[in-house]
Known about the structure:
2 copies of one chain form a homodimer. Helices cover 24% and strands 25% of the residues of chain A. By secondary structure, chain A is of the alpha+beta class. Chain A has 2 domains: 9-156, Nucleoside Triphosphate Pyrophosphohydrolase; 169-227, Winged helix-like DNA-binding domain superfamily/Winged helix DNA-binding domain (Arc Repressor Mutant, subunit A), CATH 1.10.10. In chain A, strands 1, 2, 3, 4, 5, 6 and 7 form a 7-stranded mixed β-sheet that branches. Chain A has a 3-stranded antiparallel β-sheet with strand order 8-10-9. In chain A, a hairpin with a 2-residue loop joins β1 and β2. The first copy, chain A, is elongated. At the A-B interface, β5, α3 and α5 of A face β5, α3 and α5 of B. Chain A binds a DNA duplex through α5.
Amino acid sequence: MAKGINLKTAELEKISHLDYFNIAVSVDCVIFCYENKELKVLVIKSDLEEFSNLYSLLGDLVRLDEDLDTASYRILQERTGMEDVYLEQVHTFGSVDRHPSGRVITTAYYSLIDAKHQKLRLTNNDLHWHPVKNIKKMAFDHKAILDTCLNRLREQVMEHPVIFNLLPEKFSLRELQELYEAILSVELDRRNFRKKIAIKDWLVDLNEMEEDVPHRPGKLYKLKPEFKRKTLRRKSSNQRPLVA
Amino acid sequence: MAKGINLKTAELEKISHLDYFNIAVSVDCVIFCYENKELKVLVIKSDLEEFSNLYSLLGDLVRLDEDLDTASYRILQERTGMEDVYLEQVHTFGSVDRHPSGRVITTAYYSLIDAKHQKLRLTNNDLHWHPVKNIKKMAFDHKAILDTCLNRLREQVMEHPVIFNLLPEKFSLRELQELYEAILSVELDRRNFRKKIAIKDWLVDLNEMEEDVPHRPGKLYKLKPEFKRKTLRRKSSNQRPLVA
DNA sequence: TACAAATATGTACTTACAACACATTAATTA
DNA sequence: TAATTAATGTGTTGTAAGTACATATTTGTA
């Protein structure tokens, strides 16, 4: 029961009491990383016959004694072993027919992790990182979930300093720009990009240089500590006056 | 069972089988309207003893055969009788202890309706419109839900033409500005506000004038039809390139 | 007929955005 | 060791939007 939502239909049919207590509750995690200049997502092969050969997101049913946030954190930890992750709730998918084995509503979270600092665990069912842009079809409604989370990531990425969770501690501006380009699927002008980042005032110049690059090394930067926000919850307190 | 989530503890204790099928699923609606220059929200008195004298949002358990979106739409319709409403999912609240009678997770929706075009129905338990800014405390975690939805509304209001769902078909720029001010809790400069709205190009000049106002009447406008988006879902397709 | 109260509009300053070009540095190669 | 290559690192200019601020106009009312 640790991967995906794998309830046999029989299992579901056994249970049928009050109408209000046979909706199963799950979470699904869209876990992003950045590797080889590509945005990737953690996927696993579905057990269900209906979806043989399709990949699904990492998910599980929520336990009776755990918060929704905790459940998604548990899944992430079980698979990546990481303790300190960026995790944000995005949307809850609750169509009646979204799961072939019964009524299951699922809350989607997206997560950003540094590929270098994790090793996948419980790597059964072909658990692996898959380039986001190659994914055309997934099991269940997981493609829609992925798209929704990717869109949320795109919305957030210029407004809030979340992208740095995908990078190692030290990075060059080129690396940062390439990451933005991978997420947004656009090409950016280097000079304008640097200006924009400079205005945000998110970075500290480390006075160090890249090493082992086959060209002129760039300066290294890190995120200012005050922006390291590995929150579990969507913050609900931006009161910025949106108009003049 | 139509208002709030009112399960007696006994009812809940009867049911206790597989761990995964005794989480109840509900929706809660933050239904906003605009009346007497105030942003108001529809509230109802809670049945639970724990929360006597506190108000709660309109909510209900989700039925086995209805989509999550449909459930929130049903609640809205039951109370306001309105068919064509703006409704958007915001966040799912799933703390273990958020409901005193048992494990209930709830998905919050916010909705915008024109106060003039509805009549409240099933007005038991002191169902009424309450000014948002006067609400300090609510039953359950409903104050947090309200805050989260209000913040979402504030985020959306300048980016997307959703605010017009709170206004009658025809309105003056002053009315529109007052509504923005009520939602954002700011004072806006009239000249800059008009410029900003003009740039958006959301409005049609109706070549009509306000009537029955005790001062010089203003022009009336309406929203361009192509922006009347009474969507049920958060759109998941803004691919705007966020950077140069 | 004067007054009060709101509508309607314009200008100057500042800041962000977008398109674009050149000098500099380090590694590689001839 | 000098020339080449491929990246880094900046600066300028035009355009659009944001902000602060003032005056003339229209209507209802006293």
